[in-house]
Amino acid sequence: WQRLNLLEKLSMNDTSQAILIRNPMAVMTGPQGDASRAGKVDIRIRNGRISEMAPSLEPCPGERVIDASDCLVYPGWINTHHHLFQNLLKAVPVGMNQDLEGWLASVPYPRLPRITPELLRIGARLGLAELLLSGTTTCADHHYTYHANSGTETGDILFDVADEFGMRFVLCRGGAIESASSHPGFSKTSIQPETLDQMLTDIERLKHRYHDDAPDAMRRVVVAPTTPTFSLPPVLLQELAHAARAMNLRLHSHLSETDNYVRFCREKYNCLPVEFVAEHEWLGPDVWFAHMVHAQPSEIRMLAQTGTGVSHCPVSNSRLGSGIAPVPQLAAAGVTVLLGVDGVASNESGSMIGEVNTAWLIHRAEQGAAATTVEKVINWATAGGAQVLGLGKVGTLQVGHAADLVLYDINHPRFYGFHDFAVAPVAAGEPIRVRTSIINGRIVVEDGQVCGLDVAALREQTFQGVQALMASD
Questions:
Q1: How far apart (Å, rounded) are the C-alpha atoms in residues 356 and 257?
Q2: What is the b/e burial string over 342-371, where b = at least 16 CB atoms within 10 angstroms of the residue's CB?
Q3: Complete DSSP assignment for 219-252
Q4: How far is 432 from 353, CA to CA, in rounded Å?
Q5: Helix (H, G, I), strand (E, B) or coil at 280
Q6: Helix axes 154-165, 117-132, angle to 10 degrees
Q7: Does residue 152 contact residue 145 with C-beta atoms inside 8 Å?
């Protein structure tokens, strides 16, 4: 019934609705430089796209007018690395003070067989709701719960829940296809990885059913083995790259999240991680990696030269003690930088506001005040993400692009005293209220509430889900 309620409410706000957003305090657009700010322009939306941006637009007959006089307008955040299944695994005590390898072996992997389809659906609802309420409009989920004895319906469930919420969704179909002892998660459990044939058969099915190549696609599928260095033999890594490109699908994975990635590659393959993936055709403008915390200067040059993207996950990297990625150096070299929440089992928050605020601060603390600007961080979390995902009509606010945008309400004492209100979401961070969120011209958050979502029911379902997982410990 909850799904039907969501769909019914969303259908009332379909992309055919004409919308005019009037009198915003400021509009941030997503590009860097002079184009990053549009001032106090009004925004007209037609057929899911921005049709006009100019001051003092007059309403047209039948047009819904949204008064944004106490709001900032931002492009919707594009979360390029997430693990929605982890939303029922926040603050698991055994993993709170462990590094990545210990945390993998004690928190997510022992619980993979316990994540039922219903628990996944609950976790995905919770995760997407939290993302929406932080201003996210696109989510790329790196979903790696697959193993030899699992079903393949979990990817379908994620697409289904994203449809309920009206979110733009990219399924990065993950998993491991090697039983080798080197994998820090699988090696500590009795779970058996799936085969290459199992993985490719499901990816082909998902592509046929969901994938859309359009530059404003609502659904995409990506080939995403969990980790290229640990999750499969090198010969299969290259084979998987060939299969992905034959299907015209992009590639994604974790890389260089901890110094163990570097040590492992040096000891086993006598090279650096980026050199290793380069040897197996895993670099290019159709590839992005999450983390890259321990990238060396030579690797940064390789990433830049090949157009490979990097999804920066500063909160999770801090929480696990993995380190601080050299993002200013990556960006200066020409690498496309983007942002991701990562899983909330290693973050405890699914907020993109938390990520942009941390990204703005953490590099300044390490490298000086000139290391980041608000405009750069906004660009990473919007236009950068759209570029790497291949969504050329998403990520920036400009005429002709998809109407994915957020109205942040700053009529609150916390924001009184600002000289430049436009920077408030990034500079001040949480808490900040999304008054309205629009995806593809459809209103999905209204007056601070996810349209059609029964929050009390979701709270009860998540409580019961957590209890079920705790009972299994």
A1: 19
A2: bbbbbbbbbbbbbbbbbbbbbbeeeeeeeb
A3: EEEEE--S-TTTSS-HHHHHHHHHHHHHTT-EEE
A4: 8
A5: coil
A6: 30
A7: no
**pTM of the predicted model over 0.90:** yes
**By the 8 A CB rule, do 425 and 72 touch?**
yes
Query: Which of 243, 166, 197 lies closest to 6 in space, CA to CA?
Result: 166
Residue 13's identity, in one-letter code, is N
Alpha-helical segments (H) within 133-194: 154-165
Burial class for 100, CB neighbours closer than 10 Å (0-12, 13-18, 19+):
buried
Alpha helices in 284-429 (DSSP H): 297-306, 314-319, 327-333, 352-367, 374-379, 385-389, 424-428
**Where does residue 154 rank: exposed (0-12), middle (13-18), buried (19+ CB within 10 A)?**
buried
- Residues in Cβ contact with 51 at an 8 Å cutoff, skipping those fewer than 6 apart: 44, 45, 399
438 backbone dihedrals φ, ψ, rounded to 5°:
-125, 130
- Whether the link from the prior residue into 431 is cis, omega within 30° of 0, is yes
- Whole-number Å distance between alpha carbons of 441 and 431: 26
Burial of 397 (0-12, 13-18, 19+ CB in 10 A): buried
Residue type, 24: P
Residue of 73, 41, 66 whose CA lies nearest to 55: 41
pLDDT value of residue 12: 43
User: Is the dihedral angle over the CA atoms 330, 140, 168, 306 positive or is it negative?
Assistant: positive
Residue 100 is predicted with a pLDDT of: 93
**What residues in the chain have per-residue pLDDT under 50?**
1, 9-13, 180-181
What's the CA gap between 283 and 306, in Å, rounded? 6
